[in-house]
Amino acid sequence: MNESALREEICACGKSLYDRGLATGSSGNISVRLDDGWLLTPTNSCLGHLDPARLSKLDWQGNLISGDPASKEAFLHRAMYEERSGAGAIVHLHATHSAAVSCMSGLDPCDCIPPLTAYFVMKIGKLPLIPYHRPGDAQLGEVIRGLAGKHAAVLLANHGPVVSGKTLEAAAYATEELEETAKLFLLLRGHNPRVLNDAQIAELKQAFNLDQ
Questions:
Q1: What does the pLDDT read at residue 136?
Q2: Do 137 and 72 meet the contact criterion of CB atoms below 8 Å apart?
Q3: pTM of the predicted model as reported, rounded to 2 decimal places
Q4: Comparing C-alpha atoms, which of 156, 163, 160 is closest to residue 177?
């Protein structure tokens, strides 16, 4: 897909997420890898009202090549791309249920949402919880860098998820699966839910050739 088509895809994806209440106000950002850099939604932009021509285009040093100033969370995306060569796109949202889980205490920091469904295992796998950092804190990028090699998605404490995928469609679908599983997790709190066991997870990994 050429750059022009990818710009249109970012805007269409952003509008879809916004229209369905998964992104509100100017929260969240989307990026896509290019042959000569990467595209990112601009700072203070609403995902429901993006302009393809005004998307930020950056080089791999984080310098702005064209478009509006980039999101202050550009370093989150850059860290994930640098550690995951197969990542073609990243979606970061503050969606309600996953953000709610990110605010809970007592979570397993290595796997903060249990394997409730096969689709969560297939699209997300283990989801590490990253300790709270203020928005824009560059140290957060280094923490992500330490985890991204083994995890396609992370959950930022008191913030929200950062999810990568081979394509923008894959990243968006995985983000939505995470949000739905977070909703299930909250609904099932106190109900002793049955989760997938190690053998069932291993079977999924083998059947669908999932990253180990």
A1: 86
A2: no
A3: 0.96
A4: 163
Tokens standing for residue 175: 């983000």
- List residues bridging with 66 in a β-sheet: 57
Annotation marks residue 18 as catalytic: no
SS (H, E, C) 122-172: HHCCCCCEECCCCCCCCHHHHHHHHHHCCCCEEEECCCEEEEEECCHHHHH
Q: Which amino acid, one-letter code, is at 102?
A: S
The catalytic position among 3, 82, 83, 119 is 119
Average pLDDT over residues 138-158: 95
25 by Cβ neighbours in 10 Å (0-12 / 13-18 / 19+) ranks as: exposed
73 has catalytic annotation = yes
Using an 8 Å Cβ cutoff, are 178 and 186 in contact? no
Which candidate, 58, 42, 14, places its Cα nearest to that of 168? Answer: 14
Give the C-alpha separation, 134 to 75, whole Å: 13
Looking at this protein, which amino acid is placed at residue 81? Y
What span, in angstroms and rounded, lies between the C-alpha atoms of 61 and 73?
Answer: 14
Write out pLDDT tens, residues 81-113: 999 999 999 999 999 999 999 999 999 999 999
Bridge-based pairing of strands 89-92 and 153-156 is unpaired
Give the active site residue among 9, 73, 176, 177: 73
Q: Which residue has the tokens 């920091």?
A: 109
Helix, strand counts (H, E) of the chain: 7, 8
